[in-house]
Design goal:
Number of helices: 5
Distance between the termini: 45 Å
CATH architecture of the largest domain: Alpha-Beta Complex
Shape: elongated
Largest sheet: 7 strands, antiparallel
CATH class of the largest domain: Alpha Beta
Number of strands: 12
Number of domains: 2
CATH topology of the largest domain: Aspartate Aminotransferase, domain 1
Radius of gyration: 22 Å
Strand content: 25-35%
Strand order of the largest sheet: 6-7-8-9-10-12-11
Order of helices and strands: HEEEEEHEHHEEEEEEH
Helix content: 25-40%
Length: 238
């Protein structure tokens, strides 16, 4: 099985480089790792380094589907794989390494334009596209929320990440502006202490995070409280 996988890799693209790495792992590279293979007792696993970013019309990927970047194909005894379709997947992976992902458009204030979607992937795409120091703010906020609210649900709507709890609704979103990242708590008026800024909505309040101003302890207090009370059911009912 591994021999057949190797043959398909080498045939798929003339510039793919085959190497042994990491104490004997078959690796195929072109401007970065394209994929690796491992032989296990009952299968051969082929892992594409950026599989999560690749179209997979044939449905090859059947393992590691929850990983943020990688995707894998587990091949068992007797399995067959279409060489032409597999070759197309390899060439797509090579193209990804060559050109990289398309960079999102930055809207007014530098806010990333990200297509609406549910789950972690669109939120991570938003965070990666946040310009400069703001991406670190987005990453730290996302990590804090995941630690504090393990059952958190995520989505992107209107070019903003939303965080919620099933059965409770959405409790927070964030948005990039020129000089700060705005973090809005939809029931912020019920938090103690209240976030400092407010507008026409009597329930929501927010905080503007500027460069070097990430107050993790205060944000964790607000996140913990906000996730424990009924939130906002605007675009979807959680």
């Amino acid at each position: 099985m591994l021999s057949e996988v190797r043959r398909m890799f080498l045939k798929a693209h003339p510039e793919v480089v085959e190497e042994w790495k990491w104490m004997g792992v078959p690796t195929w590279s072109h401007q970065g790792v394209v994929a690796v293979a491992n032989a296990f007792k009952d299968k051969v696993r082929v892992t594409f380094a950026h599989g999560a970013e690749l179209a997979d019309p044939m449905g090859f990927f059947n393992a590691g589907l929850n990983a943020s970047t990688k995707r894998a194909i587990d091949l068992f005894e007797g399995d067959t794989i279409d060489p032409a379709a597999f070759g197309a997947l390899v060439r797509e992976a090579v193209d990804y390494n060559t050109t990289g992902p398309a960079k999102p458009v930055l809207l007014s204030g530098g806010n990333p334009q990200i297509a609406k979607g549910d789950g972690d992937a669109p939120v991570q795409a938003y965070i990666a596209a946040m310009p400069g120091w703001k991406s670190e703010v987005g990453r730290r906020l996302d990590d804090l929320i995941e630690r504090t609210v393990p059952e958190v649900c995520k989505a992107v709507r209107w070019n903003s990440p939303f965080y919620g709890v099933e059965g409770q609704g959405w409790f927070l979103n964030c948005h990039v502006f020129t000089r700060h990242v705005k973090v809005t708590f939809f029931q912020g008026a019920s938090l103690d202490p209240r976030p400092p800024l407010s507008g026409k909505d009597p329930d929501s309040r927010w905080v503007n995070i500027r460069q070097g101003e990430f107050d993790e302890a205060r944000l964790e207090t607000w996140v913990r409280q906000a996730a424990a009370i009924p939130g906002w059911h605007g675009f979807d009912t959680l």
